[in-house]
Amino acid sequence: MAQTNVPAGHALAAKIYGAAVFAEYVTTPSFSNRLTGPAPALGSATNILEKMQTSANYPIVRITDLSKKAGDTISVDCFNVLEGRPVMGDKKLNGKMMSLSSSSMDLIIDQTRAGVDSGGKMAQQRTMHDLRSVAKAGLVGWWTRYMDQIKLVHMAGARGSQNSSEWVVPLASDPEFAEIMVNTVKAPTYNRHFYAGDATALSNLDTADYLKLSDLDRLRTLIEEGDNPLQPVKLDGDFAADEDPLWVLLVSPRVYGNLLRQSGTTAIRTFQQNAMQRGAKNPLFTGTVGLWNGILVKKMPRTFIEFASNEVVTTTTSAAAYTTTTTTVANLGANYPVHRCILLGAQAFAEAFGKDSATGTHFNWNEEMTDHKNVVEFSLRAIGGFSKLRFRNKAGYDYDNGVAVIDTVAPSPNVALA
User: For a tag site, which of 94, 320, 350, 399 has the least CB within 10 Å?
Assistant: First the structure.
């Protein structure tokens, strides 16, 4: 049977493959997609109110109804909790109304593109359908890594110095870094920055300040007692969410491994069994995870935020309004880098995608014949913006809405733990 071959540049290919790439991106089991809630069902009345926004109970909120063009700015608002006394008996209510107060942050959106050159020899030996499939698979994998890293850097508030071959996002020193990140990478607010052990700054970490289960107990208390506490994550199928709040801590493979090798056998067994019992019905609990005192510890892939000895890092001062300074990481040697763990509650990060006016899809697929029709080139385009959510409360304090960081020494597996 003859195979139907849609030629290069055909509008049908652009529409089908643009939609297919976006669908595959949002369902690929990446660490950030596990942190994104489901979109509302089509036809639901809440679509109008929620702007096709995924669940606000998850750390990452995805918005897919943008009609703006590249270079525009959208605004995200946050209303503060009402504060005031009740009015009792027949006392007059007039003049005692509680006021609504809010703050907002701007989210810049821009165009992102990536492409694949199929090569002349491949184009001659494979059908157009095969070339599209190969290009689509490659671009989905690339885009997923790019989105994971964009989120990771924004939520961490720093790029760090790790630069393995898996990284798509360049170092902060690269002249294209700011443009690729779209929105400015902002250091964690002062009330969202913690340290392992007895350290109080990057400059006074020592070799014994690696993450321990006791640090998780301390974090839980800090979460619950702080102003504007991180709202817990409510996952689909987690029936204990209301009675037993849950937060998510993303850690590097080394930090997770050190948690296992420095704690007692009984504690570690409990740490892992808790996750198995709580998360049987949610994919976020798959992979290498443990649960301790309401904090789900999840191992990140090979890309994570690492600071070397004497590296200069932007941090926030203790002032109420967001102001920054620089701190030099303690000089502990090559065996003791500092890794930044990311603690997530609900509504930590927003990603927003617009639709292409021609195809109606969130990703625009394009293909062209070049080199005198000897080479097929495929490209992908999307217009969107990405940023952690940050607001200012009634007292005038800036705070990252759903994300905090914990800086910890990450001893090499080849050295004994102090």
Answer: 94
